[in-house]
Design a protein that fits this description.
Elements lengths: L1 H13 L31 E5 L2 H8 L4 E8 L2 E8 L2 E7 L4 H16 E2 L4 E2 L7 E10 L9 E9 L15 H11 L9 E4 L2 H7 L4 E7 L20 H6 L2 E2 L2 E7 L2 H11 L2 E11 L4 E2 L4 H15 L2
Parallel strand pairs: 1-4, 1-7, 7-13, 8-10, 10-12
Antiparallel strand pairs: 2-3, 3-4, 5-6, 7-12, 8-9, 8-13, 11-12, 13-14
Helix pairs in contact: 3-7
């Protein structure tokens, strides 16, 4: 064993870890990471993310102790203790572009030495649970119920900017593109699987399926106000899709990027959403806040059990 350790040390000596440039790994004047404004010690290994800044307080209000409160732009972070376990809850705002910032910066906090600007030899794997809201795409899914995302179907294109072929469930993506007659001028859909371990714990007993992630709220999700969507009958194309035992169960704006970047970086991720509206039946929740409060309690309990 000592021979192997010495050999690894010699390899590192002759091929030193690359120092990351300040234009790539951007830090604030106090040494915190650029957008999140966090120091490594302010981040827990178990993380809950929400879109809405106000929802951070809803989650941390259940903590036994809050250690840190940090805010920069839409990124609000509270880290504390719940049920004897250290947890971070953070708002990311809306969309896969913000998930791109969140994932790369929390990974940097966990796996890059910010002082030397070098990647740590030993990596830390984070557990990330997204608690969100979404619209159902199957008739039988009731408003105010919970949906756990087995897969993220990316209609957004973000993962095409990374070398992500090894994490894309290519067959599922291709079958969906064929089924929907996906337009060639749009980013090709990609599909990423959730962390099975995390999903089995957090999503137990909930409706499960494929979650479609859109790059916008209106036309990218088939909504029409004054502008007509380019894709006609998008809801029908999504709701009618079948792949083995899987159906597309809901629509939102973050999961595909969260799953893709987590897989590429070696982290565990799953998304659990409250259904605030059913896009097929056109039914909308009268007040989804009690359901959201119940979901927060459920996730906290399961994440710390």
């Amino acid at each position: 064993m000592s021979f192997i350790i010495d050999k690894v040390a010699n390899v590192i000596k002759f091929f030193p870890l690359k120092k990351i440039a300040s234009t790539e790994l951007i830090l604030n004047s106090d040494g915190s990471i650029y957008h999140l404004a966090l120091h490594p010690e302010q981040l827990a290994k178990d993380i809950i993310i929400v879109g809405d800044q106000g929802r951070v307080k809803m989650v941390s209000g259940h903590f036994d102790l809050v250690e840190h409160k940090v805010q920069n732009r839409e990124f609000v972070t509270h880290t504390g203790i719940f049920n004897g376990k250290r947890i971070t809850v953070m708002s990311t705002g809306i969309g896969t572009d913000n998930i791109d910032i969140f994932m790369n910066e929390v990974d940097a906090l966990a796996n890059i030495d910010l002082k030397t600007r070098k990647v740590k030899p030993k990596k830390t794997s984070l557990n990330i649970v997204r608690i969100g809201t979404s619209g159902a795409l199957q008739k039988n899914i009731e408003v105010d119920s919970f949906v756990a995302s087995e897969y993220g179907l990316g209609l957004d294109g973000l993962l095409h900017y990374y070398d992500a072929k090894k994490v894309d469930e290519r067959q599922l993506s291709s079958v969906f593109a064929s089924h929907s007659k996906w337009e060639k001028n749009l980013p090709f859909p990609y599909t990423i699987k959730a962390s099975e371990k995390l999903l089995s714990v957090i999503g137990n007993g909930m409706t499960k399926g494929i979650t479609a992630t859109a790059p916008g709220f209106f036309a990218p999700q088939g909504r029409e106000l004054r502008l007509k969507p380019f894709i006609k009958n998008l809801e029908r194309k999504l709701s009618s899709f079948r792949y083995k035992k899987h159906t597309i169960v809901n629509f939102e704006m973050e999961t595909s990027a969260l799953y893709g970047l987590s897989k590429l970086l070696g982290h565990n991720a799953c998304t659990i959403c409250v259904i605030v509206g059913n896009r097929i039946t056109k039914k909308f929740s009268k007040d989804y806040h009690p359901a959201m409060e119940l979901l927060i309690k459920t996730v906290l309990s399961r994440l710390t059990s």
